[in-house]
Amino acid sequence: MAQPLMPHATASWLVDNTALTFQQIAEFCGLHILEVQAIADDTAATKLTGRDPLRSGELTQDEIERGQADPDYRLQMQKEPDQAVRTKGPRYTPVSKRQDKPDGVAWLLRNHPELSDGQIGKLIGTTRSTIQALRERTHWNIANIQPKDPVTLGLTSQRELDAAVAKAAKARGAEAPTDARLDTDREALLEELRAEREAQAREAEAALAAESGEVEAETELNADNLFKS
Question: What gap in Å lies between CA 12 and CA 47, rounded to an integer?
Answer without folding.
Answer: 9
